[in-house]
Write a structure and sequence with these properties.
The chain is an alpha+beta fold. Among the domains are: about 150-185 and about 235-290, Urease metallochaperone UreE, N-terminal domain (HSP40/DNAj peptide-binding domain); about 290-385, Urease metallochaperone UreE, N-terminal domain (HSP40/DNAj peptide-binding domain). Helix content is about 25%, strand content about 25%. It is built from 10 helices and 17 strands. A 4-stranded mixed sheet has the order 12-13-17-16. Strands 3-11-10 form a 3-stranded mixed sheet. Helix 3 (about 25-35) runs antiparallel to helix 4 and helix 5 crosses helix 6 (about 125-130). It is elongated, with a radius of gyration of 34 Å. The termini are far apart. Residues about 80-145 have low confidence and may be disordered.
Amino acid sequence: MSQREWIEKDFYKDLGVSSDASADEVKKAYRKLARELHPDANPGDAKAEERFKAVSEANAVLSDPAKRKEYDEARRLFASGGFGRGGYQPGAEYSTAGGGFGGGEFNIGDLFGGGGAAAGDGGIGDLFGGLFGGGRGGRTATASRPQRGKDVEAETTLPFREAATGVTVPLRLTSPASCTTCHGSGAKPGTSPRVCPRCNGSGIVSRNQGAFGFSEPCDDCRGTGSIIDDPCEDCHGTGVQNRTRSITVRIPPGVSDGQKIRLAGQGEAGLRGAPSGDLYVTVHVKADKVFGRNGDDLTVIVPVSFGELVLGTTLSVPTLEGRVGVKVPPGTVDGRILRVRGRGVPKRGGGAGDLLVTVKVAVPQDLDDDAAAALHAYLDAEKASGFDPRGGWAGA
């Protein structure tokens, strides 16, 4: 596919969004179409499979801010008519001195990253560098480089305690993976790809049109530098195929809500044996009925009676591993936080945070006669001792 053919693709139309759509709009449109067109949901439907490939290709560009910017700039450049749409007349020569045609020869290849532009000028080659896999001074070297697989995102939801202590969870993924028949080469078992004779394995061909010289990906090998004469029947020469696979993901202790876990090489398989992309698993953590979290500290609220605060006591408090005894000193005020060292959430570098125990008075709603009489006797004794809970209070 030539550079012009690639740029003239309308990725916005493929996803059904406007050219000024936000990143969230692009993401939502792709997810909706991917669900509708996925091969698993449309077995044997060739049209749906082609549309699925098209929206996947569109999302790969529009979901990447850098690639999207390059794509937009390149499309505006081609739409301006400066490349073969009336801006050049065959047979004319371009004069740098006169500012028009008539003098020296101008090679359009300079615009695409060749000589004539100083380093850092940001020529057109920079625009196509991220889109075509090449760049200034490295087009021949990178054109035949196998394309790395795309990164894949997945999600999992964990109970609070499993997220805090760490757990191993199974995930089922449906995505392009290395073909099990040809082992990613794209060639039929027993055969191998051969070097493309047209570009000699570089993936790039050059042609002249009048005074202009063009360099573009080789049409015969599609820029890969190799040709497969007998494609694998299962993956049709791509080296990848959509399949559902199960993997085991180790969630480290102390993972927080919304955190992403990266698994290198577990993403989409690269074309023709290229490295696979990575898998990013976003972890969602459910709230717990007992525990809360403040960084690496574990928080818990323990109900106590008024008498326990006044006289002091030892509480049995739950932890992630079991229970621990927490001493409440006599005269502890309601709402005080008692700290237990090292009984919190495990830290990535080792050790653990603290357990923060908040004591909160539970007020009885119904008292029997004996309890009420005892409480009245206590209040009388309290007054006799001279204790005034509102003594010194500004509102007294």
